[in-house]
Design goal:
mainly alpha, about 110 residues
C-alpha cells in the first residue's frame, strides 16, 4: 500500500510541468530531489544523535510557504519516509558515511 501511494505521488509530480508556479504546476523534480536530500541528511543525523530541530523547522517552513496544502501532505509523506529509511540504514551500518563524517557534512548543508 505504501509503495503504491509513493508511486502514485511520484507519477503525479513527474508527469506535471516543473514550473515555479507551484499552485498550478506542483512540485518540480528539483523540489523532490531537494526534499529527498534533506530527508536523507536528517535521517542519518537522527541515527547519529545530532540535533535536528532547526533543520526540521526550516524544511517545514519551506514546505508551508512553497506548496499547496494537498502537495504538503504528499511531500511530507515522502520526506518522513526518507528520514525513516536513512535513519534505519545508518543504524544498520548500510550508510557509506560514519557519524563523524555526517556531523561535519550536516553543519554545512544549505537548508531552504
Amino acid at each position: 500500500m505504501k509503495s503504491k501511494l509513493l508511486f502514485a505521488t511520484l507519477a503525479f509530480v513527474i508527469a506535471g510541468p516543473s514550473s515555479q508556479a507551484y499552485a498550478e504546476a506542483g512540485p518540480s523534480v528539483q523540489d523532490l530531489s531537494r526534499l529527498a536530500y534533506f530527508g536523507n541528511a536528517i535521517g542519518r543525523a537522527v541515527a547519529c544523535g545530532i540535533d535536528i530541530k532547526l533543520p526540521i523547522l526550516t524544511v517545514g517552513k519551506w514546505l508551508s510557504r512553497s506548496f499547496s496544502k494537498a502537495e504538503q501532505g504528499q511531500l511530507l509523506f515522502l520526506f518522513t519516509g526518507s528520514i525513516e529509511r536513512a535513519a534505519q540504514d545508518q543504524k544498520a551500518g548500510r550508510s557509506p558515511d560514519t557519524c563523524l563524517e555526517i556531523t561535519r557534512a550536516f553543519d554545512s548543508i544549505a537548508w531552504p
